[in-house]
Structure formats: structure tokens, C-alpha cells
Amino acid sequence: MFVDSAIIEVRAGDGGDGCVSFRREKYVPKGGPDGGDGGDGGSVIAVGDPNVSTLMDFRHHRVWQAKRAEDGRGADQYGADSEDVLIPMPPGTLIYDAETGELIADLREGDRVVVAKGGRGGFGNDHFKSSTNQTPRQSTPGERGQVRTLRLELKLLADVGIIGMPNAGKSTLLAAVTRAMPKIADYPFTTLSPQLGIAELDPERRLVLADIPGLIEGAASGAGLGHEFLKHIERTRVLIHLLDIQPSDESRPADNYLVVRRELELYSPALAEKREIIAVNKIDLIPDESELQARIADLRRELRLGGNEPLFPISAASRKYVRPLLEACWKAVKA
User: Fold this and answer.
1) How far is CA 106 from CA 60, 76, 154, 256, in A?
2) Number of domains within the chain
3) How far apart are CA 110 and CA 49, in angstroms?
4) Residue 272 belongs to domain with CATH number
5) Closest by Cα among 9, 6, 152 to 85
């Protein structure tokens, strides 16, 4: 199950109280103040962990709390600090203050962000001694730890996003070029959550691809799971727009292309300006080469592609002509 949003509460530890104490020993009738300071409360820290891929754990673990620090003691003994609490989160997590809407962090791999600051320890009476006040009887309590309600939102981090209408063959393409194992079947909306995979062109060149579930008309306004799907495309650097050359619903590939493009533009003009590589899938369904070339020529004309604008005919099921598509993606990502 892919979970890409969650609400959690984080509670930092309170600081320990300062101590009021005076040195009392044999033959020392008027010992000075020796009350120690309280320890500092533990903070709650979000950590970008590459081994975590979804926010599913936060559906069941909603409260993260650090412990209170120890109080100060006599004999100038300071209270022990309490340990910080680390929360592993997937890279790409946006952390918001649920009450104010403030973006606290855009978490990347290896980041450590304090989301709730622990309270400082209070001062013991030893802190208040002076030449005019040699027997202070005052101390301060520890500060309260910060308490926050956080809204977590995960946006996938991928080099290439594969988009297209339902049943265009996106999951088949992802499975063909990576070791990902998405669910594949011959009906729309097989993929109900984004899938990630790594395509290895050679030992030194790798691409992270994301299969974004099929878009439908009205996705930008929330139809289906439109908003949930579209937000994952925002962080990809390049888009593969996959078209079915022979849709089972007898729609036209050019019309399907325009539907998806329209949804991208309505959701985010910046998203619509991302570099796009168009691929025509399922060419194995048209065994006659002359008919295939005629269809591709018609599609280029309908999409108004110039002579230098590439269009990649592929068969994801047989992996035919997939390599040139990946090479084009690599060049686009590194451009």
C-alpha cells in the first residue's frame, strides 16, 4: 500500500528543573549553594531515510514523544539530558505545520531537521550566587518542550515520470526497463499508486523512473485521484508521454495526448512546461510495417511535430526499441 500523506503529533521533552541546595558537610557550617541545573529535553528530529518509501507507518504511529530531562541535584550535579527521538521519513517528504500551514522542511536524503525543539533545563541556585547574594534560594523550572501537529506530504523523487491515459502500457514499460514489479493487466487503472524503478543503462548510468497512474479528463480538478497523481509528477525532470497506438476503446491517440496535456496545463503551467518525450506503445499490435509507418506519420502530423522533434515507436511488452527511448531520457535529464 502506498501512503503519501499523514498527520502526526510531535512532542519534545521538557527540560529538567534547577535545584535549590546548599553544601552541608562536617566542619563546613556555612557551605555555599550547590544546586545543579536541569538537563535539556530531547528534541524530535525528522531524518531523510532512503530505506523508507512511504508514509504508511505514520497511519499507525501518530504520536512521537521525547522524554523529559532529569532535574538538577545537590553537590553541583547537573541533570542528564534526554535523548532525541529520530523519525525516519522518505526523501521527498514535505513537512508542514498543520496549524499555520508553514512549510518546515522539504526533506532530502540524509537531512536531519528538528521539528520539535526540546526544552532547556532550568538553573539551579548555584547559578544565582553573587558577591551580594551568597545564599540564593531561587531556581528556575525547565522549559516546556515544543509540541506540534505536523502534516506530511510525500512527493516522489524521480528523474523520469511516465504519464499517459489508463491502459497505455506505463506499468509494462516500467517493468521492461527496471526491476520493479507493478501490477499489470489489460484494463484501465491497474496501477492505483505510483511505482518507482531504476533503469540501468550501464554500470555508471542509472535513471529513476516513476509510473504515474493513468490520468483522465478532469484530473486537474480532482476527478478520480487526479490531485493525488499529478503532484507526484512535479518533481520529475523529464516526462515520457506514453500513447497507445491502438486504444481498446477505439479513441484516437492524438486526442488522448491532448487530454493529458490539458490536465497538466490546468493543474500547473510550470508542470506543462517540463521536457516531454513522446513514445508510441504497442506497435507489435500492427504487424504490417507500411500500415505502422502510416499511422506514425499521421500521428506526427496531428500532433504538429516538427522534423527534428522525436517520436519513439516502441513495444514495451517485447522491449522492442526501448533502448533508444532510455538514451533520449538520459540526455534530457543531463541537459
Assistant:
1) 23, 42, 10, 34
2) 2
3) 6
4) 3.40.50.300
5) 9
128 and 4 in a common domain: yes
With beta carbons less than 8 A apart as the criterion, state whether 322 and 207 touch: no
Q: Are residues 200 and 92 in the same domain?
A: no
pLDDT in tens, the chain (335 residues): 345 788 999 999 999 999 999 988 777 677 789 999 999 999 999 999 988 877 878 888 999 999 999 999 998 899 999 999 999 998 888 999 999 989 999 898 899 999 999 999 999 999 899 888 888 999 999 999 999 999 998 876 678 888 888 778 888 888 888 765 433 334 333 344 567 777 888 877 888 888 876 554 443 444 444 445 566 677 788 999 999 999 888 899 999 999 888 877 877 777 778 899 999 999 999 999 999 999 999 999 999 988 788 999 999 989 999 999 999 999 998 88
The CA angle 78-79-84, to the nearest 5 degrees, is 130
- Identify the three-state secondary structure at position 176: helix
Q: Which helix (H) or strand (E) holds 230?
A: helix 226-230
DSSP character at residue 284: G
By residue range, what is the domain housing residue 19?
Answer: 1-154
Angstrom distances, CA of residue 190 to CA of 166, 182, 194, 209, 280: 8, 9, 11, 18, 19
Half-sphere exposure of 230 (CA within 13 A, CB side): 26
Question: Do residues 319 and 242 both lie within one domain?
Answer: yes
Question: Which is nearest to 322 in space by CA: 213, 184, 209, 246?
Answer: 209
Q: Are strands 93-97 and 103-106 parallel, antiparallel or unpaired?
A: antiparallel
